[in-house]
Design goal:
heterodimer; A: about 200 residues; mainly alpha; Rna Polymerase Sigma Factor, Chain: A; 10 helices; about 0% strand; B: about 575 residues; alpha+beta; Jelly Rolls; 13-stranded mixed sheet; 8-stranded antiparallel sheet; about 20% helix; about 30% strand; elongated; disordered C terminus
């Protein structure tokens, strides 16, 4: 999986020629080509939604709607432009709509933590035109091996904290605090790359 | 202190925190803005990493779900309308509370029947009473389905009572082990694999509470619905398997044809699934259905039902003779031969007594003018008492056909209360021109106007009494009112292979005093009392209640195999 993820690290523009060809095929009625587009973009789009609205049951739902919307409006897409950014823009609108819908429903406020996550979405720093997930993938690639292993055990192998601690010869407290530290470091890394991009522009 | 909080936060994200500790985290977040920001940041990164580092299968499942939506989008409008009908029907049912006019006294007499009424109230949201043309509430059939296969079935004591001949009313089947097949009035068949809990709700609707079931739905029963605690499945003519776990999580696997699936809660968008697709409605609070790996091969399939022509004695008039006034019976009667009950024209001073031969649905048929009719004396077992029987024929009347009151096609029976089958000419009784069955003052009226100048296959099924009810009646005991055989609730009407909903009806208990002897005869008349003008062909009278599959079989025998009507199950003759 780690290797697969590293294969994703090529920039968005490198795959655009092949991607344009897929989009052209879909526009000509080849549905199978759209499935390839989903495979190319689903992880990054879902990760983008996750960073905007980290509520598990909404992430796939919004990403799903974004792909369906994109399929229905594919004729409106301009070949040669950034398909990933277009998908993120669609998802961004869906996230905003969901946040609005959520806040209108009083019953949703009963789950305070979830409510807190939804209400925290302001869109600041996570604009759809920014390839934030690409930055995250780059930051992941720069992690030391020990931290990579920690993330792989938690997210890829879905091991319990106790199993992770035993396997790595550490305490459970160490596993938990280190994971929090790594996530925070990754966020800082991503924001640093965003700032660099802004300065470069 | 800070590290404790951080640990709790990670434990919360990993879902390793007990509920009491969740409250603690919540309190900390509420009281500390910085910690609240940290909680959001950690949650965002955790969710993103979960997606990015999860295995390939999650991505595959997600892609399948999107593709299923994309592929089915054009059909949503059609399918949605079916669901809307169901919702409208439930809404209408929930707004009706008035007692049924035709049998109010039956429902108020005993405590036992009051209990039945209480159950009916519970089911109120899922059943419906139909208005007849004059705004009265039409009767509902007492028996909605029939147990057609029983392989080592062990029923729980609480399970719905099955009549000895298999007929079932509404209620819950609780099958502990073995196999059981339920054939609904619409023709839909559901094979239950014990242990399973399944509710019969209407002639075309069931509810699978838990366990496994396979549904086989012929074209005319399209629209058959099975609900589960988390899923609604509307069949559009197909075969599918359903599995419901104890916690209500529901899977559907489409083996053939097309079904529409939606979650029963939330803002779910219906999904149209085609052959080889499967989805899961889980307990997560989301509206999306999760794609599954298809496992239709794991379900037991219903077997083909034996033809009624091979299992039951019957009268048959094909009207295919090359000449002569008599019409021979070509059915299967005693010892495998025909009953030898020839139809003869009635000549009682009527100018056009004998119907003329004409082109029929299969070979030749007969055309009747006003005043013409044919008679025979059939064994009374076929036309009397509370024993089950079925009558089927093809009929065509002109689109301008009119008249007052009953428009009889066939009359038969012994005594002063013959059965009549015809089309309804009384708007007060139900839909004008619809198939109608009469017995004494009782009647049941269907809902399809037959007066369109085209051939229609008509079937009238009399469910009859259970054998022990029959004996009790003959023994002179006072019968339970709920067990009485009523023309309005014990008959079924089919047009072109499809079950008719009743537009009107009136209660009348059927006389149980019938002759059992083969030698006793009952009068039998085609053309009714001479008031029928139209075409007839392929007449059958069976000495058993035909299943909906048999009705469909007989209907399809009259349709050219290569016709669009045969493929669609729609009459276009």
């Amino acid at each position: 999986m780690w290797l697969n993820m590293e294969n994703h690290l090529d920039s968005e523009s490198e795959g655009e020629v092949a991607e344009d060809e897929l989009i052209r095929e879909v526009q000509n009625g080849n549905l199978a080509a759209f499935e390839q587009l989903i495979h190319l973009h689903s992880s990054r789009l879902r990760a983008f939604v996750s960073m905007r609205l980290p509520v598990s049951h909404l992430i796939d739902e919004i990403a799903h709607e974004a792909f369906v919307f994109a399929y229905r409006h594919l004729d409106d897409f301009t070949l040669g432009s950034n398909f990933g950014a277009w998908l993120r823009a669609i998802a961004n609108n869906l996230v905003r709509a969901e946040v609005l819908r959520y806040s209108r429903s009083v019953k949703n406020q009963a789950n305070y933590l979830e409510h807190c996550l939804v209400e925290s979405d302001t869109g600041e720093g996570l604009a759809p035109e920014s390839p934030i997930v690409l930055y995250l993938e780059e930051c992941l690639g720069d992690l030391p091996d020990g931290q990579r292993e920690l993330l792989q055990r938690r997210y890829r192998l879905t091991e319990s904290t106790r199993d992770m601690a035993e396997a790595m010869g550490q305490s459970e407290a160490w596993v938990r605090t280190t994971l929090c530290r790594v996530r925070r470091a990754l966020r800082t890394c991503v924001e640093g790359k965003q700032e660099l991009k802004v300065v470069a522009n | 202190m800070e590290s404790d909080r951080t640990e709790r936060l990670d434990a919360y994200l990993a879902r390793e925190l007990q509920q009491s500790s969740v409250s603690l985290v919540e309190a900390e977040i509420r009281g500390d803005e910085a910690f609240s920001k940290e909680f959001v940041l950690q949650s965002q990164m955790d969710a993103a990493l979960t997606v990015l580092l999860a295995d390939e299968k999650n991505t595959q499942d997600f892609a399948q779900g999107v593709m299923a939506s994309v592929q089915t989008e054009p059909e949503r409008v059609l399918a949605k309308s079916i669901l809307s009908e169901i919702l409208d029907e439930r809404e209408a049912a929930s707004q009706r509370h008035q007692p049924r006019a035709f049998d109010w006294w039956v429902w108020t007499k005993t405590a036992a029947i009051a209990a039945v009424a209480a159950v009916a109230a519970v089911w109120g949201l899922q059943s419906v009473q139909l208005d007849s043309g004059n705004g009265q509430v039409a009767p509902q059939p007492k028996f909605l389905a029939r147990l057609t296969v029983d392989e080592n079935a062990q029923w729980d004591e609480s399970s719905l009572k099955v009549r000895e001949d298999g007929w079932l009313g509404s209620g819950r089947l609780n099958l502990q082990s073995g196999l059981a097949e339920v054939t609904f009035g619409s023709g839909a068949r559901v094979l239950l694999e014990g242990p399973v809990v399944f509710d019969i709700e209407q002639m075309n609707r069931g509810f699978l509470k838990r366990g496994r079931a396979t549904a086989e739905v012929p074209g005319p029963a399209s629209g058959f619905v099975i609900n589960t605690p988390l899923m609604n499945v509307v069949d559009l003519g197909t075969r599918f398997g359903l599995k419901v776990k104890n916690n209500g999580e529901s899977e559907v696997h489409v083996m053939q044809g097309v079904v529409e699936v939606s979650r029963s809660r939330g803002r779910s968008v219906p999904l149209v699934l085609t052959e080889g697709l499967a989805v899961l409605a889980d307990r997560r609070p989301q509206s999306r259905l999760k794609p599954l790996v298809y496992a239709g091969h794991e379900f037991v399939l219903p077997e083909q039902e034996a033809s009624i022509l091979a299992t039951t004695r019957f009268l048959h008039y094909g009207f295919d003779e090359s000449g002569g006034a008599d019409i021979d019976d070509t059915g299967v009667g005693m010892a495998g031969g025909p009953f030898d009950v020839s139809l003869l024209p009635v000549e009682e001073g009527v100018a056009h007594a004998s119907p003329k031969r004409t082109a029929g649905v299969v070979g030749r048929g007969l055309v009747f003018e006003m005043g013409s009719r044919m008679e025979a004396n059939a064994p009374s077992r076929l036309a009397g008492g509370t024993q089950a029987w079925s009558m089927m024929l093809w009929m065509k009347v002109l689109s301008k056909a009119g008249g007052n009151g009953e428009q009889e096609i066939v009359t038969w029976g012994s005594g002063d209360q013959p059965w009549k089958m015809g089309w309804n000419g009384d708007a007060e009784a139900g839909t004008e021109g619809a198939l109608r069955a009469d017995y004494g003052k009782g009647y049941a009226v269907g809902s399809t106007d037959l007066r369109d100048g085209r051939w229609h296959h008509l079937a009238l099924i009399f469910i009859g009494a259970e054998e022990n009810e029959e004996l009790a009646l003959h023994g002179g005991n006072e019968p339970e009112e709920a067990d009485l055989v009523d023309v309005a609730t014990h008959t079924r009407l089919y047009v072109d292979g499809k079950l008719e909903s009743l537009s009107g009806g009136h209660s009348e208990f059927v006389n149980s005093l019938s002759a059992d002897s083969e030698s006793e005869l009952a009068s039998f008349s085609l053309g009714g009392g001479g008031g029928f003008a139209g075409w007839l062909d392929e007449f059958y009278l069976f000495e058993a209640a035909a299943s909906s599959a048999s009705v469909l079989e007989l209907y399809e025998m009259g349709i050219p195999r290569d016709s669009k009507a045969f493929k669609n199950g729609v009459n276009e003759k």
